[in-house]
Amino acid sequence: MNTQVNFRTINQLAIPATISGIAEPILSITDTAIVGNIPTDSLESLAAAGIVGSFLSMLIWVLGQTRSSISSIISQYLGAGRLEEVKHLPAQAIFFNILLSVVVLVSTVFVIEDIFTLFNATGKILHYCVSYYSIRVWGFPLTLFTFAIFGIFRGLQNTFYPMVIAIIGAVLNIGLDFLLVYGVEGWVPAMYLEGAAWASLISQAIMALLAFVLLMKKTEISMKLVFPLNKELKRVVFMSLNLFVRAIALNVALILAVREATALGDRFIGAHTIAINLWLFAAFFIDGFAAAGNSMGGKLLGAGDYDGLWKLAKKIVLYGMVVSFILMMGGFLFYHPIGHLFSNDTLVLDTFYGIFYIVIFGLPMNTLAFVFDGLFKGLGEMKYLRNVLLTATFLGFVPSLYLGKFLGWGFYAIWVAFVIWMLIRGFALLWKFDRKFRPLVQNP
């Protein structure tokens, strides 16, 4: 099957993927902004939302890797013109993934306080972490289910339906946040932090339902669990396991950052919560081109079109860099009002402004890493992605973080470590792609 690699075809996938990709960080950002402005205990509530959000992101990223594996295999079979052979694969993969997620969910419910104590949460912050997590955690399997269906659509070269689902979920979440956090006098009581948790949970449930309905109505992919198991399920499992290990390494960095920020004091974890939410928002914004690389890369590989694959890589990096520079300019121009969206606490804002320039200057390097990360997932190069993350985390991020701490850099050490982490990831993937695929290209 012939795939055109040009601005139009790339952005037909990238723009909807960008919109759908920012749905999850918008859920967290909305919670953070609204919770940071509640009338009582806003600083403690903001810190709790940040800690719980980081932990839930870890769970989702660790167990949500089936999405990338399914997308990779479906896109490769689509490119080879053999899609019928994997028609029942997604249902089998999703069933086992959701079963695993339920086991993890139930196991964490009994040790919630112990989990957040590891993040250095104490007193009111620990209490708020427990109450917030106890509600939000039930949306965890729903999010995994939705993400897996997004992976199916991505493999089918369709990012439009995920975009529709994401928009509905984000808008609903924002409306419910205002309604349940602040309440309506005489109608709905103000629930503060717990209201934000319920808003997220309801939105996740609606998104999961919409994803299921659209998959059934708009594709030939079956959600019926049938036997025998598909021949590609083994490859899905091994790809997912590699990404599972990779996601653990990724979350070691994110959790250590939260832990060290919490240890520095309330204003530092508040500032870190704002910064990491904006970092993730920018990451998912750029991830639209990674999604295009994922979808189209797998299809081009399945069709054996290495010239098209090389052209795709150059174009998505270029387009991603343009977007990152636009985000940089927006950050420099509007950093002050951006901070006030999340908190009115002067100490938190001053701390946030002190490191925001590091977040902004790191965006081009983030683009290189994220774009090639998506492309490599589409190509099925999960083992190499695993090794890169292990190297970047344990030979880059961790030593940099604790060296900076030893040198007395304080809060700056966390964000310098993030820059080094992304530097290693980006250049390692660029080097591998050039080394493996340049020899296969007839017209580089």
Automatic annotation (TrEMBL):
Transmembrane segments: 46-64, 93-112, 132-153, 160-184, 196-215, 236-257, 269-290, 316-335, 355-372, 384-403, 409-431
Presence of keyword ATP-binding: no
Superkingdom classification of source: Bacteria
Membrane topology qualifier: Multi-pass membrane protein
Classification via InterPro entries: DinF-like, MATE_fam, MATE_MdtK, MdtK-like
GO cellular component labels: plasma membrane
GO MF annotations, alphabetized: antiporter activity; xenobiotic transmembrane transporter activity
Subcellular location: Cell membrane
Entry annotated with the keyword Transmembrane: yes
Keyword tags: Antiport, Cell membrane, Ion transport, Membrane, Transmembrane, Transmembrane helix, Transport
An annotated GO BP: monoatomic ion transport
Similarity annotation: Belongs to the multi antimicrobial extrusion (MATE) (TC 2.A.66.1) family.
Protein name, per record: Multidrug-efflux transporter
Upper taxonomic lineage: Bacteria, Pseudomonadati, Bacteroidota, Flavobacteriia, Flavobacteriales
